[in-house]
Amino acid sequence: MPITENVESLVAALIFAGIFYFGGVLRLPERGHHRRLLSFGAGVSVAYVFVHLLPDLETARVVFVQSTSHISLPFRDLSVNLAALVGFLVFYALENMVVWSKNTAGKRKGAAGAGGPVFWFHIIGVAVSVWLVSYLRIRNIDEGTVTLALYTAAMGLHFLALDYALSQEHGKLYEKVGRKVLTAASILGWVVGTVAELPQPAVVVLFGFVAGAVMMNSMIMELPREKEGKLGSFLLGGLIYTALILWLR
After folding, report:
1. Whole-number Å distance between alpha carbons of 123 and 129
2. Number of helices and strands in the chain (H, E)
3. Apex CA 81: angle with CA 42 and CA 157, to 5°?
4. Do the beta carbons of residue 42 and residue 222 sit within 8 Å?
5. Cβ atoms of residues 208 and 81 within 8 Å
6. Where are the domains of the chain?
7. 90 has a pLDDT exceeding 90
């Protein structure tokens, strides 16, 4: 892999790590402005899903079929899509587990957010997806018509919204521990990507899993339980990102 490409992917990994590590500092002091930023980022993330991730899933499906043509596999044509479905369902289950834990904990005096095993299940699940995003970036599976800068911007805004949601859900436990775990996952994904290469079929399936996870997280970030999303900012983010992708084609 060219040194320049290594450096570019490292910059992306460092930006992701910085978003998690400094997420609390990056929040705007005015709540209304912060919600606009999150809604703008959610619009970008949703646009990224529909005009970039979904086309890439089809490309990944073709790559998987071709690279496993010498192996007898059931549901070969649907393997990548099934991996995306698994990623979607896993993160849907994690989110519901957190909601259940908060509702249960809320009945006890002084309870604040989900904790214990639920926190660790959630953080480890998110860390795996963050790790894979950094790993797949350097393994070149997530390349399309957009530049690395646009990819980094889309995922960075997505992670910013994810960071905010995790802070709201887990409170001080996330601030003390979760941030460090996700920061490390961002860097470790890049490190492993530079020294270890998985077989192409495995990489493609992992991409499908990450795509499903990103789809799920993108959809729930703009639909918070407080219903405080800013429609104008959401539409603006989606339209701007879509226009940039179409312009670069």
Report:
1. 10
2. 11, 0
3. 15
4. yes
5. yes
6. 3-19+30-248
7. yes
- H or E element, residue 131: helix 116-138
Of 179 and 37, the one with more pLDDT: 179
Gap between the Cα atoms of 10 and 15, Å rounded: 9
Least confident piece of the model among 110-119, 192-201, 206-215: 110-119
CA distance linking residue 59 with residue 203, whole number of Å: 13
Q: Which pair of tokens denotes residue 68?
A: 């496993």
> Are the CB atoms for 16 and 134 separated by under 8 Å?
yes
CA angle, 7 then 156 then 182, to 5°: 85
* Tens-digit pLDDT profile for residues 33-75: 767 888 888 889 888 888 888 888 888 899 899 988 888 888 8
| pLDDT category of residue 205 using cuts at 50, 70 and 90 | very high
Cβ partners under 8 Å of residue 205, min gap 6: 64, 79, 80, 83
Structure tokens at 234: 């959401």
What is the rounded distance in angstroms from the CA atom of residue 103 to the CA atom of residue 249?
A: 47
